[in-house]
Specification:
Layout: E1 24-29, H1 33-49, E2 57-62, H2 68-78, E3 83-91, H3 97-115, E4 120-127, H4 130-135, E5 137-139, E6 142-143, H5 144-175
Parallel strand pairs: 1-2, 1-3, 3-4
Antiparallel strand pairs: 5-6
Helix pairs in contact: 1-5, 2-3
This protein binds ligand LW54GNZ2 and ligand LTPLIIQW.
Length: 189
């Protein structure tokens, strides 16, 4: 479904997991800051609406969308966060630079999701015109920042569920004797 047929701010509140214990990083590009500030407002509002305490939200700025990659990497490496939201707005200019910035930040954020254990949410507008960006940052198509906040909550929950499931399976294997901790007797004497 294309964005033009969907409101980015709409979501089923009943489908959102309990997020009050999760912590979120938000990295915001300063290019097109009228748009990125509106996206950040949507993201923070989406988190607060779902019981995330304001003190569980850490915000950093970077110069442009290309720097979101490094900013998100340092955020997840140095801060105790369950997910990171990367916010940017790239608008087509006169040259091919748009293509390289969009491809670079897309691939870079994808790489972070592959190489690290913290979900990084892609909240980067890649628009042909400023009006398209306005429409998607609190305008007629809603706010992609809110959409990103909901995605961040759901991915933080998925991460925690996966970890819990793994720990439960390990405990079951240990207690059944099917798994041995190195250096410890298989069965207690
Ligand atoms: N033209 C836009 C940019 N360009 C700047 C790059 O993101 C980057 O900061 C620069 O190449 C230095 O590494 N950035 C945006 O976020 N939006 C644009 O429209
Ligand atoms: C995405 C960009 O870097 C672009 O807005 C810069 O504009 P231009 O292509 O005219 O240099």
């Amino acid at each position: 479904m294309a964005t033009k047929n969907k409101n980015l701010s709409e979501y089923d509140k009943n489908s959102i997991p309990d997020a009050k214990n999760f912590r979120f990083g938000i990295v915001v590009s300063e290019w097109n800051d009228a748009i990125t500030e509106a996206l950040c407002y949507g993201a923070v509002t989406g988190l607060l609406e779902n019981e995330v305490p304001s003190e569980h939200i850490i915000r950093w700025n970077v110069p442009g969308s290309f720097e979101l990659i490094y900013g998100a990497k340092k955020m997840l490496q140095t801060q105790k966060v369950d997910a990171v939201i990367a916010i940017g707005c790239v608008i087509q200019g006169q040259t091919k630079h748009f293509d390289f910035v969009c491809e670079g930040v897309t691939q870079g954020i994808k790489d972070l999701n592959v190489q690290t254990d913290v979900p990084v949410i892609f909240c980067v507008l890649t628009d042909n015109t400023m009006q398209q960006s306005i429409d998607r940052s609190g305008g007629k198509h809603g706010n992609k920042g809110t959409e990103a906040a909901i995605a961040a909550i759901k991915m933080a929950y998925l991460k925690h569920q996966a970890l819990f499931s793994h720990e439960m399976k390990s405990q079951q294997l240990l207690s059944s004797g099917m798994l041995q901790i190195e250096g410890q007797p298989l069965l207690e004497e």
